[in-house]
Specification:
With 384 residues, the protein is an alpha+beta fold. The chain is 53% helix and 16% strand. The protein contains eleven helices and ten strands. The strands form three sheets. It has a five-stranded antiparallel β-sheet with strand order 4-3-2-1-5. A three-stranded antiparallel β-sheet has the order 6-8-7, covered by helices on one side. Strand 2 and strand 3 form a beta hairpin. Helix 2 packs antiparallel against helix 4, helix 4 packs antiparallel against helix 5 and helix 10 packs antiparallel against helix 11. The longest helix has 38 residues. The protein starts with a helix and ends with a strand. 9% of the residues are buried.
Length: 384
């Protein structure tokens, strides 16, 4: 049967064919015009509305509208007005699913990309570093492949192919692969967790129980850290996340607390002057917020003051310089007041036992002792 005979067997008149062509052409212009009009309306927005997430996602998503999909949809609309025999109506239904499904998958593909990019820009403070790029790639790759996999399975199911066994095989194979590479997958998801949660970033100074250093690179499996001693430490992402990480770069202030001990023999009026004068010394320093100086402990060995102040800048070098200046001026203040930081003088008593050969009433060296029992009188030694 030739083509003319084939179309003749469909029992479609020229009037119906012309009507179908007109419907297809009209549908193409309507669909294409509606998409273009909607895109122009979105581009014309200004002010806060233009920067809303939904507007940005729609603007970039509609830009991926395929003209081939619009043309195929228009043709299918024209074909749908025809009264086709039984085999062809099912085939047209399959083509409808294929065309619309492919276009929806394209839109989702683009929407995932735009949404993930906006998320990382917001949570990454506008910085595009290697860590953000790795996480962005992983998220985009996983979600986009999920979209196309679902579309492929749905298309096969629409065509009448049983995909249940195929999906079950994929599940069993996925479990086997996951068990075989569970350590690698653990580090991979740990890398994604680092990029999303951002406990630290490249350039941050961190400290864990075993070492301290600065982050040089966050990869898919490992994180590289430059230790304070100079060597590079490579640690698995999953292992690093299991530790308590101290991030010093995000420290905005620094609290300084220390104690000062003076001799317990210090006069009360002199001891009462220490908090006020020491507080004046600390308050005079730059970028320092004085908290308190209080006498907290008094024993027979020392008098102790608790001293606390806060630095508004967490720079470690500034802390060292400020603390050094405070301690030096404290030494001068104590010298001016005549206060000693030496502990209370200790008393040590020494006593020698009497020799068995010595005569009663004499010491071990034969010298008479005034102490009954023939022992030498205890000697008193004073010392710090």
């Amino acid at each position: 049967m030739d083509i003319r005979g084939y179309f003749t067997s469909l029992d479609i008149g020229w009037t119906n064919i012309a009507f179908a062509i007109g419907a297809a052409v009209l549908s193409f212009f309507i669909i294409h015009g509606a998409v273009m009009l909607f895109r122009r309306r979105l581009d014309a927005l200004d002010g806060p509305r233009a920067h809303k997430p939904i507007v940005d996602v729609l603007r970039h998503t509609l830009a991926r509208t395929s003209r081939i999909a619009v043309l195929a949809t228009s043709i299918l609309i024209g074909v749908s007005v025809l009264d086709l025999p039984a085999p062809w109506d099912a085939r047209v239904g399959h083509l409808w699913f294929l065309t619309l499904g492919a276009q929806v998958a394209l839109w989702l593909h683009r929407a995932i990309d735009v949404t993930a990019r906006r998320y990382f820009q917001v949570h990454g403070k506008g910085l595009e570093d290697d860590q953000v790029s790795v996480a962005h790639t992983l998220v985009i790759w996983a979600l986009q492949w999920s979209v196309w996999t679902i579309f492929l399975l749905a298309m096969l199911s629409n065509l009448g192919i049983n995909v249940t066994t195929f999906v079950a095989s994929l599940g069993i194979g996925g479990v086997a692969v996951a068990l075989a590479v569970q350590n690698i997958l653990g580090d991979l998801f740990a890398s994604l967790s680092i990029a999303l949660d951002k406990p630290f970033e490249v350039g941050d100074s961190i400290s864990v129980p075993e070492f301290s250093g600065s982050i040089e690179h966050v990869g898919l499996k490992t994180t590289r850290i430059r230790a304070l001693s100079g060597e590079q430490i490579v640690i698995a992402n999953a292992e690093l996340l299991r530790k308590v990480v101290h991030n010093f770069k995000r420290q905005s202030t620094r609290r300084v607390q220390y104690t000062l001990r003076i001799n317990p023999a210090t006069a009360p009026d002199l001891a009462a002057q220490v908090p006020e004068r020491l507080g004046a010394i600390i308050s005079a320093k730059d970028k320092v917020k004085f908290d308190h100086v209080n006498l907290t402990t008094m024993t027979q060995d020392f008098i102790e003051y608790d001293i606390v102040y806060n630095l508004t800048d967490a720079n470690y070098g500034l802390f060292l310089q400020t603390q050094q200046a405070v301690l030096l001026e404290t030494m001068g203040m104590l010298r001016d007041l005549g206060i000693s930081t030496a502990p209370r003088a200790q008393e040590l008593r020494l006593q020698e036992a009497a020799s068995n050969d010595a005569a009663p009433g004499t010491g071990s060296n034969g010298v008479a002792s005034n102490v009954p029992g023939g022992t030498r009188a205890p000697s008193l030694i004073r010392g710090a």
